[in-house]
Recover the amino acids of this structure.
């Protein structure tokens, strides 16, 4: 089977199903780490609703990409322009059954290309300490840890990378 990546409306049923899987996993990991329990289903529904309300992942300043393995939806990566030169990478996720098959790398690369096409020269992102696999992925793909670029409630590590073949200016 082969991977494909294509834009998808951020509010489509496919996006909603993948985001449910994403939120379930990251929320459970957070609650297990901090409170020793899984996410209460009502909390999960509130988080999903809050996350879908204003994603910033719609054209012309944002985009959601969905990866499919064969024909099955298997992952997401979102991007949004923060300014004319900077895009933010968000919601990078591959379903557990398909991890380790280069889907995340493909999604991040596609998001970088799309961001460069929108004029961005730099990609930034944030992640949590417990998402060690994500931090390893970003480092492997050339992202370097930086000072915070936002104050998100779950942001603990910030990364940046020049994109689009244009060197980043300091």
């Amino acid at each position: 089977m082969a991977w494909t990546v294509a834009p998808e409306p951020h509010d489509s049923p496919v996006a909603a199903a993948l985001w449910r899987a994403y939120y379930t996993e990251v929320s459970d990991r957070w609650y297990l780490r901090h409170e020793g329990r899984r996410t209460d289903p009502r909390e999960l529904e509130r988080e999903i609703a809050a996350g879908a309300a204003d994603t910033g992942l719609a054209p012309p300043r944002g985009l959601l990409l969905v990866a499919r393995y064969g024909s099955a939806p298997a992952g997401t990566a979102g991007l949004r322009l923060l300014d004319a030169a900077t895009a933010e990478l968000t919601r990078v996720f591959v379903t557990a059954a398909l991890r380790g098959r280069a889907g995340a790398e493909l999604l991040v690369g596609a998001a970088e290309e799309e961001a460069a096409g929108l004029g961005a020269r730099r990609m930034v992102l944030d992640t949590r300490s417990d998402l060690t696999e994500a931090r390893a992925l970003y480092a492997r793909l050339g992202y370097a840890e930086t000072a915070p670029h936002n104050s998100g409630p779950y942001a603990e590590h910030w990364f940046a990378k020049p994109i689009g073949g244009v060197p980043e200016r300091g």
The radius of gyration is 15 Å. The longest strand covers residues 72-81. Residues 148 and 158 are 6 Å apart (CA to CA). The helical segments are 13-35, 41-53, 103-117, 132-140.
